[in-house]
Amino acid sequence: MRRLWEIFLVSLKLGCTSFGGPTAHLGYFQNEYVQKRKWLSDHDYSQLVALSQFLPGPASSQVGMGIGLLRGGIFGSIVSFLGFTLPSVLLLMAFAYFSTRTELEMGWVHGLKLVAVAIVAQAIFDMSKKLILSIRHFIIALLALVVVLLWMHPLAQVTAIFVASVIGYQFFKKTAERDDIKEAVIPISKTTGVCFLALFVILLVGLPVASPFIQYEWFAIIEKFYLSGALVFGGGHVVLPLLEAQFVQSGLMSSSDFLAGYGMTQAVPGPLFTFASYIGMVIAGVPGAIIATVAIFLPAFLLIVGAMPFWLALHRIAGLRGAMAGANAAVVGILAAAFIHPIVTQTIQNGLDILLASVFLLLLIRWSIPPYLLVLIGVVVGVIFN
Q1: Which of 108, 169, 330, 332 could form a disulfide with 379, with the two C-beta atoms 3.0–4.6 Å apart?
Q2: pLDDT of 175
Q3: CB-CB contact of 235 with 123 (8 Å)
């Protein structure tokens, strides 16, 4: 119990101070867990980061869960997740409560939307440099963009990722990079890992199949957030188009509320997936926020715990690395589609908006201004120009 409490407090500290997105989070983790506390070696940490990048889900959250697992078993993984996630969950729930009880079209909210334009544009730019490695990767991304824009359906993103994975398996398995992975000491058995992976698949397949027969509000919320969390490749920003398809296109929330919440998510520390807490709060209050948070992070938890006993084997399968390369190319196109619609189409209203969004993007790329500071600037600018 003492060790679990220690894991929780350390992860809570990181959850309160880790601004800047998944890449920055990994730097905070390396400093705290590896350099300062010596909970694992640099080599083991790099292996864990590689595994989290290989699996779908929020990379930094999965690394935190994995460190908790190595330190304190399955319960260590859970308390590590709770500590790292709790601060941003509470902040976004409070924001949702406040914003839904005020006039949403105030200038500061529009400022948040313009910040979202800049941040997503930077995410696309950064991801393209890392994931679009050849003309084939570019073609996959372009086709995914076209499919998602022309086929306005929640299954469009899923279909694009699946088809891209099949293409990647065929064409990229010989070129996908491979790390030299050594055996790591994992505190759970392969049998336990299989059970977790099986539960992940059962929920992934079973929830959509059962959905038409279970007309219950909470079940529908669980299904939508679980599928969104299970199908995210390439980082937290990619959850944006999946959630937009599930909740804005279906009419469960307005595009204005959605974009304001996404902009605010950039201002709080911790994982971007806590955007789900905001959406759940807007849709169904505190119970909705709790259910949404658990549902969207559950796939990441099941995958990281289930995959760690098979760490070495996963990285040796060239075909899976190729499938991941194809899926990563597709998510660049999917994110670009979400950038075009609804972010740009429902945010940029005039030439001043174009100018402000361009300035925000320049601050991010040229001067590397922290996202939370950019959000504050966006709020001030929005109020001034209102």
Answers
A1: 108
A2: 65
A3: yes
Q: Is the pLDDT of residue 191 over 90?
A: yes
List of residues 6+ apart from 237 with CB closer than 8 A: 119, 120, 123, 127, 272, 335
pTM of the model: 0.74
Tell me, what's the pLDDT at 181? 47
Q: Does residue 66 sit within a domain?
A: no
Q: Is 159 a domain residue?
A: yes
101, 221 Cβ separation under 8 angstroms: no
Residue 47 has what pLDDT?
Answer: 72
| pLDDT recorded at residue 194 | 95
Of residues 68 and 374, the one with the higher pLDDT is 68
Contact predicate 275/237, CB 8 Å: no
| Element (DSSP H or E) covering residue 383 | helix 371-384
- For residues 121-137, average pLDDT: 85
Residue 37 placed within a domain: no
Two structure tokens written together for 57: 């889900």
- Collapsing DSSP to helix, strand or coil, 173 comes out as coil
Domain count, the chain: 1
**Amino acid at position 93, single letter:** M
92 and 281 Cβ atoms separated by less than 8 Å: yes
Residue at 150: amino acid letter: L
Q: Using the CB atoms, write b or e for 347-385: b if 16+ within 10 Å.
A: bbeeeebeebbeebbebbeeeeebbeebbebbbebbeee
Q: Which of 336, 281, 357, 272 is nearest to 84 (CA)?
A: 272
Alpha-carbon span 202 to 358, nearest angstrom: 45
Closest CA to 157 of 320, 323, 341, 337: 337
- Least Cα distance to 271 among 92, 42, 4 occurs for 92
Structural domain harbouring 275: 86-384
The span from the CA of 110 to the CA of 162, in Å, is 35
39 alpha carbon, distance to own chain's centre:
25
Average pLDDT of the chain, as a whole number: 84
- The winner for highest mean pLDDT among 44-53, 198-207, 254-263 is 198-207
Higher pLDDT, 28 or 77: 77
pLDDT over threshold 90, residue 335: no
Q: Where are the beta strands (DSSP E) in 131-237?
A: none
Mutual orientation of helices 135-150 and 318-338 as an angle, nearest 10°? Answer: 50
